[in-house]
Specification:
Blueprint (H helix, E strand, L loop, with lengths): L7 E2 L12 H22 L3 H25 L8 E3 L7 H6 L3 E4 L9 H5 L6 E2 L10 E2 L15 E10 L10 E5 L30 E5 L5 E7 L10 E7 L3 E2 L5 E2 L6 E6 L2 H8 L21 H5 L9 E4 L8 E9 L11 E4 L2 E4 L18
Parallel strand pairs: 1-4, 3-14, 5-16, 6-15
Antiparallel strand pairs: 2-3, 6-9, 7-8, 7-10, 10-13, 11-12, 14-15, 16-17
Length: 369
C-alpha cells in the first residue's frame, strides 16, 4: 500500500457519555467524520513532502532514543524490532502492536528505519471534546514530571498542515494527563481525587506546553498516565496558533485553536504499566480501549483512524521508560474554542466558573463519568 493511502485520522476524541449528552455526542461524532473525509482528501497529494519529513523523523527518533539509552547506561547498538501494519478500523487498531522492542535476543531486524518507520500512524485530526479538566495558563516546558512517580515517557509529536503538506512551525502544543492513581493536577473537585485538597490547584504536574520546531516537532518528558473509572488510559492535547510566550513562561495571544483531542496507548502496554508500582495502588476500575467510547464508536470505528502512540522501550525492562511518537495532521484553517473551569495565574491556580466539556473522570470519591 502506498504511503499516502496510510494517512489516518486521530483525535476524534469525544468524552464518555453523560446523561443528557447523547444527542450532542452523536452530532459531534458526525461532524468529526465529515472533517476526517475532508482532511483525508486534502492529504492525498502530500506523499513526497511527507515522506521527506518522515525520513528525517526516523533519524531524529533514532538519535533521541540513543541519547536516552546512554543516560540509562543501556547499550546503544542493541537491535530494534518494529512491526508495521496497516490499521483500518477499531478491531484492527486494537490488534495492531505499536511496540518496537529494543532487545537483542528478540530482534529480527537491526535497521533503525524498520523500528521507527511508522508511516501508518500518520494522522488526520478533527476536533474532540476537551473534558472538564483543561487548565488555562500552564507553563511552556518540556519536562512536566515534577515529582510524580511512575514510568518515564518521552513523547514526540510531529504536526503537519493538511492544506499545505508542510510541517506546522511555531504552534504551541498543550498537553495534560492524570497521574498514576487517576488524579489530574491543577483542579479541585469531588470528581478528581480528594475534593478537599485545595493545594492541588497549585500543582502543575503532567501539564505543559511546547513550541513546534522547523520540522513541526514537539517533545515532552512525562509519566505514563494512570486511569480513572469510565475512561481508557489517554492523554489530552490542545494546539494554539499565533500565541506569544511571556517572560513568566506562559503563553498569551488572540490566535486560533485548530485542534482539540486525545491520544491512547496499546492495551498490552497499559497492562504492563498497571502491574508496576505506583499504578498497582489505583483501585479504580480500568476501562479497556475496546470498551472506551472515545476510542471506539467516536474515534476508530468505520474510519482509518489510529490515535495510538507508537513506542519503544529504552531497555529490556519497562522500568527503564519508553519513547513514544505519533504524526498529527491538522487543518490550520479550523478554529475551535477550548473551555476551562480552572486557570493558573500569578497567584496560583483558581476556579473560573467556566464549564468544561463532558468526559471528566470519576476519581476517588467521585462518580464514574
Amino acid at each position: 500500500m502506498r504511503f499516502t493511502k496510510s494517512l489516518v485520522l486521530a483525535f476524534a476524541a469525544l468524552a464518555t457519555a453523560h446523561p443528557g449528552h447523547e444527542d450532542a455526542e452523536a452530532a459531534q461524532a458526525l461532524k468529526s467524520r465529515q472533517v476526517y473525509h475532508a482532511n483525508k482528501r486534502a492529504l492525498e497529494a502530500c506523499g513526497t513532502k511527507i515522506q521527506a519529513l518522515h525520513a528525517r523523523g526516523v533519524e531524529r527518533r533514532t538519535a533521541e532514543v540513543a541519547k536516552h539509552r546512554i543516560a540509562r547506561r543501556i547499550a546503544v547498538n542493541d537491535p530494534y524490532l518494529k512491526e508495521n501494519a496497516v490499521k483500518r478500523d477499531t478491531t484492527s487498531v486494537l490488534q495492531k502492536d505499536h511496540q518496537g522492542t529494543i532487545n537483542a535476543t528478540l530482534a529480527l531486524e537491526s535497521d533503525a528505519s524498520y523500528v521507527f518507520n511508522a508511516s501508518s500512524s500518520t494522522v488526520l485530526n478533527p476536533e474532540g471534546e476537551i473534558g472538564p479538566f483543561y487548565v488555562s495558563g500552564e507553563y511552556v516546558r518540556s519536562d512536566i514530571r515534577n515529582d510524580e512517580p511512575g514510568i518515564d515517557v518521552v513523547l514526540e509529536a510531529q504536526l503537519i498542515d493538511v492544506n499545505t503538506c508542510e510541517p506546522i512551525v511555531g504552534a504551541y502544543f498543550d498537553i495534560w494527563s492524570c497521574n498514576s492513581t487517576g488524579v489530574y493536577s491543577g483542579v479541585q473537585t469531588n470528581m478528581n481525587g480528594n475534593g478537599a485538597d485545595a493545594s492541588n490547584l497549585n500543582n502543575t504536574a503532567l501539564r505543559g506546553i511546547q513550541l513546534s520546531d522547523d520540522d513541526g516537532v514537539v517533545q515532552f518528558t512525562t509519566k505514563f498516565p494512570g486511569h480513572y473509572a469510565g475512561r481508557a488510559t489517554h492523554l489530552h492535547v490542545v494546539v494554539h496558533q499565533e500565541a506569544t510566550q511571556l517572560e513568566n513562561g506562559t503563553i498569551v495571544g488572540s490566535g486560533t485553536v485548530p485542534h482539540i483531542g486525545q491520544f491512547f496507548w496499546d492495551q498490552k502496554l497499559i497492562t504492563q504499566v498497571e502491574a508496576t508500582s505506583p499504578y498497582t495502588s489505583n483501585t479504580q476500575r480500568l476501562t479497556l480501549n475496546a470498551l472506551d467510547r472515545v476510542f471506539g464508536a467516536q474515534e476508530t470505528r468505520g474510519t482509518t483512524s489510529d490515535p495510538v502512540f507508537n513506542y519503544v522501550f529504552f531497555g529490556d525492562s519497562i522500568d527503564d521508560g519508553l519513547f513514544s511518537w505519533i504524526y498529527v495532521g491538522i487543518d490550520t484553517s479550523a478554529s475551535y474554542t477550548p473551555t476551562y473551569s480552572f486557570q493558573l495565574t500569578d497567584h496560583g491556580g483558581e476556579a473560573t466558573g467556566n464549564g468544561g466539556g463532558p468526559g471528566g473522570p470519576g476519581g476517588p470519591g467521585g462518580p464514574p463519568q
